Amino acid sequence: MTGAKRRRDTVWRKIQAVRFEDIKAWCMRRLPILEWVPAYDWKENLVPDTVSGMMLAIQQVTQGLAFAVLSSVHPVFGLYGSFFPVIVYAIFGMGRHVATGTFALTSLISANAVERLVPSVRTNFTANNNSTILGLSEFEMQRIGVAAAVSFLGGIIQVAMFMLQLGSATFLLTEPVISAMTTGAATHVVTSQVKYLLGMKMPYISGPLAFFHIYAYVIENIRSVQLEALLLSLLSIVVLVVVKELNEKFQRNIKVVLPIDLLLIIATSTACYYADLEYVYGIEVVGNIPKGLPSPKPPSLSVLPEVVTEAFGVALVGYVASLALAQGSAKKFKYTVDDNQEFLAHGLSNVIPSFFFCIPSAAAMGRTALLYSTGAKTQVACLISCVLILVVIYAIVPLLYWLPMCVLASIIVVGLKGMLMQFRDLKKYWKMDKIDWSIWVSTYVFTICFAANVGLLYETIYWNVLLAHHYESLKQVKIVSVNSPLVFLNARKFHADLLKIIQKDGLSSQVCDDCEQNTLLCSFSNGSCHGESQSCHSDRRVLILDCCGLNFFDYTGVSVLLQIYMDCKNRHIDVLLAHCKASLIKAMQYGGNIESENPVFFESISSAIDAIQIHRVRLKSGNR
């Protein structure tokens, strides 16, 4: 009995040890902060993170106030939205340079729900009809209740997508789709600020074609434009644009950029106070902003069924924009992010802050670019910004009473410059791929005519239909991504691994049953051909090498690529290369005979696939 008990105890200890290791591994995977905090280099990273955090706090405060107004709620809730989501993302997020917080596009989407369920009865925030919470009016609390419900439900949707492992489905959201959607949404945001820029009293206009109805209203009521507000808006925009351009021009020489947003707020608020612009000229100001943080309160569950559409828009648009920034950050600084973990991080960054009256959050391009330019190393920069925002919330907010609304609108418009400059992508897509160009234009038009979430949904459906339509024609296409330099040290392994991938997926007549894990290549297949099926003979097999990650190569690497080309040609497999550097194309053309009746080098994978489809259509037409 003693021996049996001892064995049971031993087994139980082993089970406990396994469980502990599993729990520890799960925590490390789902709580990235446990991985990077112990390895944080305080000596090397604290100073740049502190400087970046100070600069970020300034931008978080100004954008928080502005995007809260954009979301049709009291400006103080934008400060909360610049504080709570940042802390949550720092714990769960993997993007070291991703600055989450208030976001123009999600604010615009939530404003639809706010204005629909709690229609505007006044256009400023100066009234002081106190309620039991924060000293704000019941009207203002009802509005933030709707916005918080949108944030809560949007976050729940993102967490559900994490649980369903849908992060990998983002391949449907191509670069042209994201670029056009964000550009169209930015255009909507600018349009929503026209009433503040012009000092006009305008009813909230939403729904299909609202973009055009707003400008029609402005033209019809052009006489009601407030000249003082217009001049102040123009002056603010000019100052912001000029100083920001100078900051970008000299950012290599100076580590700390001029905080023009903050200086403009201080200058205009002071001028408005001493010149009494609110009463003398009727300039609309922010008004009373309460101090301190609110006590937590769950969002109203009765509102949730009414905001489902906006919640899905916040979940999809916020995640897509944030993931693009996280992936760009990872690529720039050479680390990795998990798409599904980002779903969890942003979902919780919406769910938890919704209990503290926060509007929907996401990562913003301008803030992330600021972290790049100021030399931030980790999320410590974002946490330091939270400390400074807390100081603002408890000590400085009463001084913002006299901030003109037209100045806030100017800050919003200039902050969208990066998104609006994506119009330049049209030229690139026209040269590279006419289909990508048409996708960009159609997505932008749908976004302008309806909303960002509608444009995103349209393009997702479009790509699903497109993939389903062309699935059969792409069955014999193999796409392999090259993710490392190709030099004499790894060239032979690259060749061997590529042949194994080809053989395993049936592009070759030979079959390999046992292939080792490949560390140089990532393969994506739209199907395979086994045995002697008729489709194998009717459609010539194609291998596409995506050379986007091939940043360095030597003579041996080029020789191996040429050898692969000839080997595949002998196996009746066409080889196409996409995203090649000009130097690689020149080296391959000089190093061997790769002349072909059809092009070999393509600027994108989609253009290579288009060429395959066109070629096969011509062959089928000729056979008829």
From TrEMBL:
A Gene Ontology term for the protein's cellular component: membrane
SUPFAM superfamilies named among the record's database cross-references: SpoIIaa-like (SSF52091)
Entry-linked Pfam families: STAS (PF01740), Sulfate_transp (PF00916)
Entry membrane topology: Multi-pass membrane protein
Domain STAS, residue spans: 467-612
Keyword terms: Membrane, Transmembrane, Transmembrane helix
Keyword Transmembrane: yes
InterPro entries: SLC26A/SulP_dom, SLC26A/SulP_fam, STAS_dom, STAS_dom_sf
Transmembrane segments: 64-92, 98-114, 144-164, 170-190, 202-219, 225-244, 256-276, 307-326, 369-393, 399-416, 437-458
One BP annotation, GO: transmembrane transport
Subcellular location, principal: membrane
Cellular localisation: Membrane
Protein name: Solute carrier family 26 member 7
